[in-house]
Amino acid sequence: MTIVTNLGFPRIGARRELKHALESYWRGETDAAQLQATAAELRTRHWRLQRDAGVDVPPSNDFSLYDQVLDTAVLFDAIPQRYRALAQRAPLDGYFAMARGLQRDGVDLHALEMTKWFDTNYHYLVPELTRDQAFTLHADKPLSEYREARALGIETRPVLLGPVSFLRLSKATDGSDTLALLDRLLPVYAQLLAQLKDAGAAWVQLDEPVLVQDLDDTARAAFERAYRYLADVPRPQLLLATYFGALDDNLALATSLPVDGLHVDLVRAPEQLDAVLRALPATRILSLGLVNGRNIWRAALDNALILARYALGHRGPDTLWLAPSCSLLHCPVDLGQEKKLDAELRSWLAFSRQKLQELRVLADALDGKASAEVALDQARAAIESRRRSPRVHNAAVKARVAALTATDAARATPHVQRQLQQAQALRLPAFPTTTIGSFPQTQDVRLARARNKSGKLSDADYDAFLAEQTAHCVRVQEQIGLDVLVHGEFERNDMVEYFGEQLDGFAFTGNGWVQSYGSRCVKPPVIFGDVSRPAPMTVRWSRYAQSLTDKPMKGMLTGPVTVLQWSFVRDDQSRADTCTQIALALRDEVNDLEAAGIRAIQIDEPALREGLPLRRAQWQDYLDWAVRAFRISASGVADATQIHTHMCYAQFNDIIEAVAALDADVISIETSRSRMELLDAFARFDYPNQIGPGVYDIHSPRVPDSAEMVELLRKASDVLPPGKLWVNPDCGLKTRGWPETRAALEAMVGAARTLRGEVAA
User: Fold this and answer.
1) Catalytic annotation on 699?
2) Cβ(660)–Cβ(687) below 8 Å
3) Could you give the CA distance from residue 495 to residue 508 in angstroms, rounded to a whole number?
4) Which helix (H) or strand (E) holds 18?
5) Which residues contact 430 (CB under 8 A, 6 or more apart)?
6) Rounded to 5 degrees, what angle do the CA atoms 561, 565, 568 make?
């Protein structure tokens, strides 16, 4: 019988049960025992769901209360010194302090840096290491969760982040090479593997996703050294898991490592199968990633079956496993929860549960079971329905894309000339202050939205409520002394979903939640067809907010690349074409905002770096179309209209030229967690336009004082001309409360005034 396995399952629950449990714990409404009980219930539910869907070997230790990379750091005692006393006294508090920061009872701790997990919208916490780092086995999470599943009668495969990927994803705070720590780390891996073997685990999955990236000789040598070492210790059999791309020039390395099985991603890179079959010893397990773990479209099972049968023709059935391309962390839990999607669209989709069922169908087809043919016929019908549907194709949109010229993607004059006109129009002081866009979405705001959606609050009453919230937000910003205001975005549920709801070509789920980080969950729109804008989307609230103040009001939009990256994107045309369609829709909105008197317009692109391919050879093609899409959206305005953009939690060094090519007049970026280190790239490049380096971390509940922000701004002024600098938080304030928001912004404005005084002196 063909074996079906899984690399990882969503943690949050079909209805975000983990999110609600975490936030209740953080508010002090529940205790650690209640949080852990919810976590255990979710693990049990998910193991049973996978088994019922046809998975022979589900994973364990893929669950996390916050992040799997942070879990690995804690597991091996890579706890920075500043958290150690708290972690020893209260381990859960120490864990969440590393994830979120902590400011309570005289304790004031910054969170660890956070950045994107490869080219996904999942964020991981970056472990901090030093050249004298020691590792010990600090906890027993993988062992206890394996035993937990076994007590339920479910045999699992524990999942660990592999040693080389863990070190490569970490940060050395003293400038040393993290891979130099490998020989200290390996004995701890060996100790853990021995414990899992003694507990009865037959297999352990070691995730090494960096194998699909460009590797230097040092990294290649680290892989060889690590897996030679682990080959000679008591351990279960090892499945080396790669995903998010092709092995390419790392194929010989991956297939030569002394492990017992290899997983490859045949959704992102089906072309690698033949080379893998030639290179992998015939006695080793080959795990085929055949259904997409990162998107929600139903699989073309006939195509997947061709790959599986081709592999079977070259290997014995006992050495072939079927699996998703990667962990299902990036997909919603169960399409069965979707009661409001129309039947046609629903028939085109598959969430995590359905993807596992697709794998079972493929396995049954390989095994010659007649029942598989019925499911294959259903899949064929759904694929054909989607291909032929008139809902998918819009000739007018395609014609508009085809008519674009180079002038549609360029401002009329260079920034240095535009800046003079913008200075006259906006009349801002040195170190102008602003925010990134959103203000606190309180319980009252969320409740009013829910009541309006359910029909319990009329549209007129809801509009009156939003107007009141917007007016309050404007008054608070004026009282604080901010220079460029925003309307607060109280009408918006999500920075992508809000726009998708008003664009043709988008559909929406009711429970299609995926984890972005920690308790932060998003419900990505589904881009199923050609994209266009039927009517203005944001003009009404921006115009209203501007009518309440004499200060400049920023219009707030999500950029085309981010809308693309943070949606479930159609897979029947190129991503570049879909992105260009979105850009044209946003261009219409930008022009309408300008016509309404909005003199500053922010087009957020936090996902620009996230979309960068994992192989450098593919970068330029992506950056060309991504930058062009942004410029199409922004280039229809007059010189005096100031275009802002925002990016967060990304390393800019490698793409700084592309960031400059966006030609935004002002870019705001996240820099507080790195203590302004990310500014070095802008300084070395001599970035030509204006920059707002974030001076405090909005993802942490701590409130920094003005002196702390002054210190950061001085560091920024050391590497960039003060005349280029803006002052702002790291990101939007949607998830924060009003008291902490007001206190932090007052401190921020005070810091800006201090810097103005120093420069004037």
Assistant:
1) yes
2) yes
3) 14
4) helix 17-26
5) 722, 723, 755, 756, 759, 760
6) 135
Q: Is the pLDDT of residue 675 over 80?
A: no
pLDDT at position 678: 63
| pLDDT tens figures, 121-162 | 899 999 999 999 999 999 899 999 999 999 999 999 999 999
pLDDT score for 650: 59
Looking at residue 651, what is its pLDDT?
65
- Answer whether 3-79+113-388 and 416-438+481-760 agree in fold: yes
Q: Could you say which architecture CATH assigns to the domain 3-79+113-388?
A: Alpha-Beta Barrel (3.20)
Sketch the domain layout of the chain as residue ranges. Answer: 3-79+113-388, 416-438+481-760
Residue 688: the pLDDT is 87
DSSP element (H, E) containing 355: helix 352-366
The per-residue DSSP string of 526-590 comes to: EEEEEEE-SS-SSHHHHHHHHHT-SS-BEEEEE-HHHHHHTSB--SSS-HHHHHHHHHHHHHHHH
pLDDT digits (tens, 9 = 90+) for 8-20: 999 999 999 999 9
Phi, psi at residue 117, to the nearest 5°?
A: -80, 95
The third-level CATH classification (topology) of the domain covering 416-438+481-760 is: TIM Barrel (3.20.20)
Q: Is 651 helix (H, G, I), strand (E, B) or coil?
A: coil
| Alpha helices per DSSP H over 389-513 | 395-402, 415-426, 443-453, 459-480, 497-500
Q: What is the DSSP letter of 392?
A: T
Instruction: Report pLDDT for 249.
Output: 98
Closest CA to 308 of 206, 386, 376, 212: 376
46, 415, 644, 699: the catalytic one is 699
How does pLDDT run across 693-717, given as a tens digit for each residue?
888 887 777 888 999 999 988 988 8
3-class SS of residue 335 = helix
DSSP state string for 154-223:
---EEEEE-HHHHHHHSEETTS--GGGGHHHHHHHHHHHHHHHHHHT-SEEEEE-GGGGS---HHHHHHH
What sign does the dihedral 240-122-291-605 (CA atoms) show?
negative
- Amino acid identity of residue 36, one-letter, is Q
Q: Please provide the size of the chain in residues.
A: 761
Q: Which two tokens stand for residue 631?
A: 């410029």
Least Cα distance to 671 among 627, 720, 622, 632 occurs for 720
> What is the dihedral sign for C-alpha 701, 706, 710, 713?
positive
**C-beta atoms surrounding 501 within 10 Å:** 15
pLDDT of amino acid 721: 87
Distance CA 432, CA 713 (A): 12
Q: How far apart are CA 112 and CA 47, in angstroms?
A: 31
Stated as kind and residue range, the H or E segment containing 285 is strand 285-291
pLDDT, tens only, 10-57: 999 999 999 999 999 999 999 999 999 999 999 999 999 999 999 999
Instruction: Compute the Cα dihedral for 5, 11, 12, 18 and give only its sign.
Output: positive
Alpha carbon 557 to chain centroid distance? 19
Predicted local distance difference test score (pLDDT) of residue 159: 98
What angle (nearest 5°) sits at the alpha carbon of residue 579, between those of residues 575 and 581?
A: 120
Query: What single string gives the DSSP state of each residue in 695-750?
Result: -S-TTSS----HHHHHHHHHHHHHHS-GGGB-BB-SS--TTS-HHHHHHHHHHHHH
Of all residues in the chain, what percent carry a pLDDT higher than 90?
A: 87
Of all residues in the chain, what percent are helix, strand and coil, respectively (each to 5)? Answer: 50, 15, 35
Q: Which of 309, 300, 293, 323 is nearest to 365 (CA)?
A: 309
Q: Is the pLDDT of residue 545 over 90?
A: yes
Tokens of 401: 């894309």
